[in-house]
Amino acid sequence: MQAYSLRLYDSLAEEVGQQVDSHVVGGFFLAQSKERLREFSFLAGKFRALGLEYELVTPREILAKHPLINTDGLVGGAWDPEEGYVDPYSVTMGLAAGARQYGARIERGQRVEAIEGVNGEWRLRVGDDVWSCQSLVNCVGFWANDVANMIGTRLPITNMEHHYLVTENIAQIEGLDYELPMIRDTDSGFYLHQEANGLLFGPWEQDCRAPWDFGMELFDHDLDRLEDGITSACRRSPKPASSASSTARSR
Ligand SMILES: Cc1cc2nc3c(=O)[nH]c(=O)nc-3n(C[C@H](O)[C@H](O)[C@H](O)COP(=O)(O)OP(=O)(O)OC[C@H]3O[C@@H](n4cnc5c(N)ncnc54)[C@H](O)[C@@H]3O)c2cc1C
User: Fold this and answer.
1) Each residue of 43-56: pLDDT tens digit?
2) Which of 143, 192, 193 has most ligand 1 atoms within 8 Å of its beta carbon, as the pocket-test mutant?
3) Which atom from ligand 1 is nearest to the alpha carbon of 113?
4) Cys bridge to 27: 7, 121, 182, 242, which one at CB 3.0-4.6 A?
5) Is the C-beta atom of 105 inside 6 A of ligand 1?
6) Could you tell me if 33 and 130 lie in one domain?
7) What would the pLDDT profile of 205-248 be if each residue is shown by its tens digit?
8) Which residues contact 63 (CB under 8 A, 6 or more apart)?
9) Which domain covers residue 54, as residue numbers?
């Protein structure tokens, strides 16, 4: 899917005239143990078989591309040159333009409230209307179980509240003439990537709450739950931590 998405996003400019703002900055996966490095080695073979690049690297090679990282305690890591991020607005608009080009009709602001299977077709109640179709794709994100429940089934997924923190601008990053690669510290459980001229830090938290009734708003933060993650991130990237205050957001 990763390889397919990259090629798809790249092709949207030519195919539907939508330039996607994509930042393929590369990414490091950090290993604090030989076992983790063995896992990366296994993945490298698997990715190569799929035609993707993914190579093992030394702490020194990590430092050469990411000078803000403290490599103490690292056995090595893996480098994925195609890691990165895209601007979600331009991707969504590009995919919508492509769908319309190939015959789709997009109805916005319409909520499916009930689904019924009748004589081999689906009937969807949308406000006062009933829409019929042969095939129905449940792609409503974290509301997917609400829609699955409409036909009496459940999906094996759950929702997790998750924090991320954005630092203020950091002088060392402002001085760089390239964008920093992404970092995933699997053993400590967080990711880190450049956000404007600061860093965005996201911990993979334990003991998450699982809210169901909300939309796109941000929650209040719960900094106590982040203590371990923040401590690990400050150890791994101490320079920005000592020079910037940060803002916590929860989603
Ligand atoms: C703040 C934030 C930052 C994120 N950052 C990253 C990131 O850096 N990298 C990354 O990979 N992912 C990130 N994610 C996750 C990523 O955004 C989601 O995984 C992705 O958007 C899911 O896409 P989707 O199309 O499956 O669902 P969604 O984007 O959630 O779309 C589902 C749609 O279904 C609609 N819907 C719901 N119920 C109904 C109904 N009954 N009838 C009709 N329509 C309905 C909703 O209104 C919504 O428009 C982030 C998410 C958030 C909130």
Assistant:
1) 999 999 988 899 99
2) 143
3) 41
4) 182
5) no
6) no
7) 877 776 666 666 777 788 888 888 888 888 998 765 454 444 55
8) 69, 71
9) 25-83+160-250
